[in-house]
Amino acid sequence: MDTLISEYETKLNTTVSGKEEEEANSIFRIEDLNVYAGEQHILKNINLTIPRNKITVLLGPSGCGKTTLLKSMNRLTDLYKELVVSGNIFIENDEILHTNKNVPLIRQKMGLLSQKPYPLPVSIYKNVAYGIKLKGVKNKKLLDFNVEKKLREVGLWNEVKDRLHHSAECLSIGQQQRLCLARGLAVKPRIILADEPTSALDPVSSKIIETLFRDLKKHYTIILVTHVMRQAQRLADHVVFMNYGEIIEQGHPNDVFKNPTTPQMKEYMIEGN
Amino acid sequence: MNKRKRFEESFFKILSGFAGFSLIAILGFIILIIFIKGFNALSLDMIIKTPKGGYYYGGEGGILNAIIGSLYIAFGATFIAILLGMPAALYINVHLVRYKRTQNTIRYFLDALWGIPSIVYGAFGFTLMLALGLNASLLAGIITVALLITPILIRTFDEVLSTIPKGLHEAALALGSTRTEMAFKVMMKQGFSGFITAVLLAFGRGIGDAASVLFTAGYTDLIPTNLDEPAATLPLAIFFQLSSPIPEVRERAYAAAIILTVIILIISLSARGFSKKMARKINK
Asked: Where are the alpha helices (DSSP H) in B163-246?
């Protein structure tokens, strides 16, 4: 079993990592990113460095471009013909925006958690195993091991261990969101992209997700989109405040939240609190 | 709630209730009339025997030839339509998802094809049959009915696929799926029960259409054993018997209509049962 697991880890790591540990502190670098939808300039000259193993919070009012920025990071903007994207995005010095490299492989470097959970129309087990199978892992023992591991990682194992082969749709919305997180983690991403992942959840489920994020940042870089000021204050290690498609202010939460320098940030903080 | 709102509420409740129940009543009335007019002529012989000499003048026999012919044509045409329709619908919803204008143009043409009267398909099928050097046969009937139901099937598959949330597409792609993997491992599973409904709709249209097979499938008292042999169909059997001046034969036409209705009902119920069973299996 141990040999199998080690083979699996090697397999995942060889497919996932481009260059190991090249930059110590940053994992994502965005340079001069612009996104247009026809005449509309959605993202304006975004320059951003995302620190490794931290929670970076993209904060800002609805419609300010946070989600578009997040979707640019894993090339989901490719799905929208109306979006014209220019600039560069680097993951550990590998340019991902204009490369002809395998886009599914690029996406596997990032787990995505959307506003509303979207469990696949299969069982709980198959949801988690889905991404692992895509990587070519077929061994049943390995799949079982990893499904259990990832479900434990998101604190869902004890709740679902007796109904692994039931439809994922029978779970509560909070459980579904954790399942989606487990599913994303199963492909061994480096980064978790979370687009307002608690907006559809009740306070208890939201708290569970927030606690999970705090634990997960030891192993993953988390980019969290939110417009909830208090959530940003609770979770952020690095804050990026956006407004009308621009980064208005960014930095350590102590600086940004305690001494906001721009009037937009000050106003947002007053309204948000 | 003020008086005006209460009136509005009651008025629309009564109006929509009336519309709903009228529809059920009309359907019930159609079935009732068919049963009243055809029940006496219904016999086991009708479904287990082929017509004997003089059947259409009130002689002995049944319409097994038409039952089998109709099933052959409807199943064959539905099979071809699925083979053509599923990839087409997936193409529209997976690969053309970024090209809204192309998507809408294709949908417009499919809707136009859906609206063309079946007699036009019959005429086209007849021309095609002559061009291909075919006789009026089971194959020509299958091809013509397939042409008739393929646009219906593509558009209904398309409707099912387009209701799948974009978030689910993104979730599957974000896990590293290719578009093809997303289409087959996620979208097909998500839309499965909708696809069954679409197939039933197309099958129902295929088995019940007379005009498209009028020139193409021919008519025979025998059960076809080859694709190039003519095939009788239930709608034509009903048509021919209903045109008869003999009252007994006209009664048999209604009995044939009962058989056609029951066949559709059985296939519909079993397909829905199968769909539920499969959906449970897929979800596991």
From this structure: 166-174, 179-181, 188-190, 192-208, 211-214, 234-242
CA-closest candidate to residue A55, choices A221, A241, A231: A221
In this structure, the answer to whether residues B65 and B112 fall within a common structural domain is: yes
pLDDT of residue B270: 87
**CATH code, domain carrying B261:** 1.10.3720.10
Q: Which chain A residue lies closest to B169 (C-alpha atoms)?
A: A118
Please indicate, yes or no, if residue A33 is contained in any of the structural domains: no
Alpha-carbon gap: A255 to the closest alpha carbon of chain B (Å): 33
**In this complex, is the C-beta atom of A156 within 8 Å of any C-beta atom belonging to chain B?**
no
Question: Tens of pLDDT along B117-139?
Answer: 999 999 999 999 999 888 899 99
Token pair in block for residue B198 = 């679409």
Amino acid B282: pLDDT: 66
What is each CA distance from B255 to B42, B111, B163, B223, B258, in whole angstroms?
5, 34, 40, 20, 5
**Short-list B19, B70, B29, B21, CA closest to B47:** B70
Could you give the CA distance from residue A109 to residue A187 in angstroms, rounded to a whole number?
8
Task: Say which DSSP state B1 is in.
Answer: -
Q: Does B205 have pLDDT greater than 50?
A: yes
One domain for residues B132 and B235: yes
Is A183 close to B165, i.e. CB distance below 8 A? no
ipTM for the whole complex? 0.82
| Whether residue B157 is found in the same domain as residue B210 | yes
A-chain residue closest to B93, CA distance: A79
User: How many whole angstroms separate alpha carbon A184 and alpha carbon A197?
Assistant: 13
Q: Mean pLDDT across the stretch B245-257?
A: 92
Low-confidence stretches of chain A (pLDDT < 50) are 12-23
Task: Indicate whether B32 and B119 sit together in one domain.
Answer: no
Can you tell me whether residue B94 is helix, strand or coil? helix
Which range marks the domain in which residue B30 is found?
A: 3-41
Name the DSSP letter for residue B245: S
Domain extent, residue A235, equals 52-82+103-272
What does the block give as tokens for A174? 């909070």
Whole-angstrom distance, CA of residue A119 vs CA of residue A183: 9
pTM: 0.81
